[in-house]
Amino acid sequence: MKKFANYIDGKLVPSTSKDYLDNYNPATGEVYSLLPDSCQEDVEEAVAAAKGAFPKWSGLSPEDRSQYLIKIAEAVEQSQAELALAETTDTGKPLWLSNAMDIPRAAANFRFFGHAITQFASESHLVDGVALNYTRRGPLGVVGCISPWNLPLYLFTWKVAPALAAGNTVVAKPSELTPHTASLLSEICIKAGLPPGVLNIVHGAGGKVGQSIVQHHEVKAVSFTGGTATGRKVALTAAETFKRTSLELGGKNPTIIFEDCDFDLAVESAVRSSFTNQGEICLCGSRIYVEEGIYEKFLGEFVKQVDALKVGDPLDGDVKVGALVSQHHQQKVLQYVALAKQEGGHILCGGDRQVVVGRCERGYFVQPTVIADLPNSCRTNQEEIFGPVVTVQSFKGADQAISLGNESSYGLAANIWTSDLKMAHNVSHKLHFGIVWVNTWLLRDLRTPFGGMKNSGLGREGGFESLRFFTEAQNICIKL
Ligand code: NAD
């Protein structure tokens, strides 16, 4: 069986414990590979390697670092087929989606930050005749990057690329549920000639490897994406060493559809925003609010289209919804459907495990599920489910839409559908979400600030925000 390795000081190595964890293909329910069950000693070695590589890497010009990143971007593009298949095998997502979204985006992250670092400038503040202040931004040193399983290589590279571009050296940990593409990235970095120790990848459990990275006194900053409860632990641990943190956490995102919207487009997009990647994207809409005049019409068309989504083998090109990432997660999602019923919800479609015959008969599939008639305050409408489950409610007027949307402890992303531009601005400004999409969903521009409010996180990533996070500002004041 294939065994993945850690990538430390430029070499592929087993964990010091020599122990391994099982890695499942969630579409078949089979263990298909093993990943190192790493421990604190492995993190120590990775941090030492990163520390050793820092002076030389940080001393390179931005143009030279940029060249390495662009080379890695090209290598990711050349390995697209292998990486996409690995991503699908680890996550259960449709192969066409890995090909269309995950892997191109991972390459784009390296390319984007490879270019961004050559355009990164700092401020100066001049008081004529008195003093000139200028801000110098330098890398932090060794930094940690910890990422989740839902968009494995896409989110891993979203952190690693800006950290390296800014001149830091990195100790990174992918999710233990999806180690495959990060493992292939190690091989890509070796082939691309990335100097040893600049990027180190340590596989294993969050409580051991992740915790050791966050605790380590030599790690100056941690960029973390994952669940809110884990984010809280990371913040508490990081506080001990006054570590800088960027926390991209969970969401419970509203999709608000006004009567004056482009109806067909709104329905089609609501299907996409609810069920793309099995609903396992932090930006998926999971609470749909529809203005009362079109509520019944929306329900009819929406449920018809959701019912038509093909669930099944992720390798099948027609499949729109693949397997959930693990049996544990499948059970969690189904428990929420049971809870919704107890809370008085009506299941309009789905609501059960999906049995797929053949190769995937033991896979972790859940039918796309639509639930109506629940109060906004119930647990189903307040807690993150992170699967192919949406609730639908009606509203009357913009004020009610805003208050229903904001009634949440999360604040990651909101989605509005209307043809009234003035209202779109007004509603957007009153919604407490880090990202608001109007008449579109998941349209990303890598230069924009990305992140959540409230329990959805702390800090912003993207463009120069990421480069600012990964650098320390120093003010130099010169008396004129
Ligand atoms: P998770 O919190 O369980 O794990 C995330 C990562 O943290 C994994 O690599 C894990 O091993 C590691 N980890 C676990 N315990 C740790 C600890 N004590 N210290 C340090 N690291 C630790 O999250 P998940 O289940 O992998 O991902 C799903 C969650 O991620 C959802 O809540 C989703 O909304 C969120 N998410 C957020 C964004 C965003 O941009 N805001 C993007 C994707 C996913």
From TrEMBL:
Keywords: NAD, Oxidoreductase
Domain of life: Bacteria
Gene3D superfamilies in the cross-refs: Aldehyde Dehydrogenase, Chain A, domain 1, Aldehyde Dehydrogenase, Chain A, domain 2
Active site per database record: 248
CDD domains: ALDH_F8_HMSADH
Domain Aldehyde dehydrogenase: 14-475
UniProt cross-references to InterPro entries, sorted A to Z: Ald_DH/histidinol_DH, Ald_DH_C, Ald_DH_CS_CYS, Ald_DH_CS_GLU, Ald_DH_N, Aldehyde_DH_dom
Alphabetized SUPFAM superfamilies for the sequence: ALDH-like (SSF53720)
Family named by the database record: Belongs to the aldehyde dehydrogenase family.
Stated name of the protein: Aldehyde dehydrogenase
Species for this entry: Imperialibacter roseus
